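task queued by scheduler; priority normal; single chain, no ligands, no partner chains; default sampling; output format set to structure tokens
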Amino acid sequence: MPADRWVGQILGGRYQIEELLGQGGMSSVYRARDLNLRRTVAVKLIHPHLSDNEEFVRRFESEATSIARLHHSNIVEVYDLNHEGGQFYMVLQYVEGETLQSRIKRANSEGRQLSIRECLRCLRDICKAADYAHRNGMVHRDIKPANIMLDAHGSAILMDFGIARILGQQQHTATGVVLGTALYMSPEQIQGQHPDGRSDIYSIGVTLFEALGGRPPFEADSAMTLMHMHLYDPVPDINQRHPGIPEKVRVIVNRALEKDPGRRFQSCAEMAAALGDALKYLPAEGNRAVAA
């Protein structure tokens, strides 16, 4: 079935699909036009093999209200969650920009690194977003560079809140997803424990490490090996990946990546404050390359 078969169709008598933006193991995302409000939106179409699962449908419907209740400048807003026949979909705020994953890849391909200042600002935004969600009873469970949008104004915006809970264990069986998910999983997630906000802090720590160093702290060819590394291997020295990282920043990275949740930052607000403090002490960028 062609990936772009939805282009030109109208969902729910309202959302006209215009262009495929991207797709993964669980969904495809399209740019669309809201014909009622005359604005551009993003529509995430959940793949049919998931919506055939009764447990998935139950989770989708139970999580919809919670997800749509999140209103924060650093969280992609969910406008609508619905289904047409067996096709489940979400209608989201459309953000012009690129993912942090794309920006890191571009910097790597150009033989440079993102500036320390940009990395700290980005992850401080994400900490603020996650803290707001945690205070409203929601843990993201899947924070990673691919789920962070960088908009035209330099703000970082967190995407896909609630997706991990809606998909449940499906995310660990979908082809091509396991390895990418394992890169950012906290030790307690790997051990099958119920994650709280400190699990998101670990994933933010992995993301900060990757943004600064160009690669995540742990890499392997299998999800099982990656999980073992998260559980038992020491965190590599970030200065080996990005020379000149200030001590304050190194301490933040290492604390976020503690194996024991009790030794991490205990809230995203606490981590955001630490990042803000580190930003104050950064020297002028000078001749250091800054990402676009």
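post-processing summary
- Residues 12 and 84 are 7 Å apart (CA to CA).
- Confidence is low (pLDDT under 50) at residues 169-177, 287-292.
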